[in-house]
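Quick one:
INPUT:
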């Protein structure tokens, strides 16, 4: 019960604001919709647009059952050809097209982007604090990548990556962990998320990324989730 009270304290939300945030109703429509007895929680008709939701509430409206979830975290296996932008970019589709049947879609944003030609684990959340924790270098949240490179990667290059390399803009990366799987395949673990960082790190040791796949963020592992599929997880599973 203490945990429930904690979350209510942090995330009180009016029912009309919540439904509007999901793009299910507009705030302008709300009064008329609630007056028409169209909204229910359990067996109770809710006519007060200022009604404050509890985390155990499920809202019934227009043949939908909408659980109130203050924090949503989704683990997505991003395929090639999708961008981690809320809208499409040129020939590339937005990751949101993979969330068409998710009622929380409009409230979610990517925490830690992947390039259009990179596959793997993407975390999507509506929680700004969690997003910051994932992307901030100060939090040292590990990101694990399977990297296929163009040229044979030697021990000297691996030592450079492990010590941290200087990128073309002068930025010195934090030390990385490297596991050599074969002559052209490594597992790279970093604690940052700079723009194109893995690709730029390999360029700094005179190599080039051919294929890039993220398998883990923090404690979240992609496991056997198929490309384009997702899994809703709890916030604590990330840490």
């Amino acid at each position: 019960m203490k945990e429930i009270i904690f979350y209510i304290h942090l995330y009180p939300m009016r029912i009309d604001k919540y439904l509007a945030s999901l793009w299910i109703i507009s705030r302008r429509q709300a009064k008329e919709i609630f007056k028409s007895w169209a909204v229910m929680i359990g067996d109770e008709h809710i006519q007060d647009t200022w009604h404050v939701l509890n985390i155990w509430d499920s809202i019934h409206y227009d043949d939908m059952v909408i659980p109130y979830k203050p924090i949503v975290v989704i683990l997505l296996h991003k395929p090639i050809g999708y961008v981690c932008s809320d809208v499409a970019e040129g020939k590339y589709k937005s990751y949101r097209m993979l969330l068409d049947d998710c009622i929380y879609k409009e409230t979610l944003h990517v925490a830690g982007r992947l390039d259009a030609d990179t596959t793997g684990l993407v975390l999507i959340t509506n929680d700004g604090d969690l997003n910051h924790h994932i992307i901030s270098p100060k939090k040292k949240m590990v990101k694990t990548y399977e990297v296929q490179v163009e040229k044979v990667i030697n021990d000297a290059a691996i030592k450079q990556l492990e010590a941290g390399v200087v990128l073309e803009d002068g930025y010195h990366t934090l030390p990385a962990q490297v596991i050599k799987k074969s002559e052209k395949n490594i597992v790279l673990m970093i604690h940052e998320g700079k723009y194109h960082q893995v690709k730029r790190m390999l360029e700094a040791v005179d190599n080039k990324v051919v294929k890039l796949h993220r398998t883990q963020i923090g404690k979240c592992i992609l496991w056997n989730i198929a490309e384009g599929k997702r899994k809703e997880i709890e916030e604590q599973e990330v840490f």
